[in-house]
Amino acid sequence: MAEPAQSCAGGELNAMAGTITALKAQKNNKERVSIFLDGEFAFGVTLDVAARLRKGQDLSDAEIDALRTQDDIDKAYAAALHYLAARPRSRSEVERRLEQKGHAPEAIAIALDRLEERRYVDDEAFAAFWVDNRSRFRPRSAAAMRQELRQKGVDNDTIRQALDEVDEDAAAWAAIENKLYRWRE
Length: 185
Known about the structure:
The chain has helices at about 45-50, 60-85, 90-100, 105-115, 125-135, 140-150, 155-165, 170-185; strands spanning about 20-25, 30-35, 40-45, 60. By secondary structure, the chain is α+β, with helices and mostly antiparallel strands. The longest helix has 24 residues, at about 60-85.
């Protein structure tokens, strides 16, 4: 029988080697599977990770750690997609959000690389979107947009490239007209 998992300094559980005795779909999330080692619940993983496992398979501590790492990568990727569903975001914004959610730095880096490969995260496209959106709906000066993009973690070269398209005079007049419209009401 496997030894019970022990808490470690980081708050995570140490792996416990054993034999898979059951793989069960989780009640509240059918996209996840509970792994039972030697008759006791050990941990949960995504369907993709569980697809490589079978009842009776022996797992070492290293294999369990690898499964948990892959599961964290999958969770980080799913959390990032959920965060990106509202609007485009910079790589830095997504990274900060995943850190707040408690994902491991390695999982965050891999998830972000996957998002960039699929062009879900693209700082150049994000900066262009932000400048266009601000110019149309909430006009700001180029300096104000530059500051907003810096706060969102976009690098200076990308900001400069996005703001090259902005007509500073037109942006200033749009901001003034917007304020005048509000004062007239």
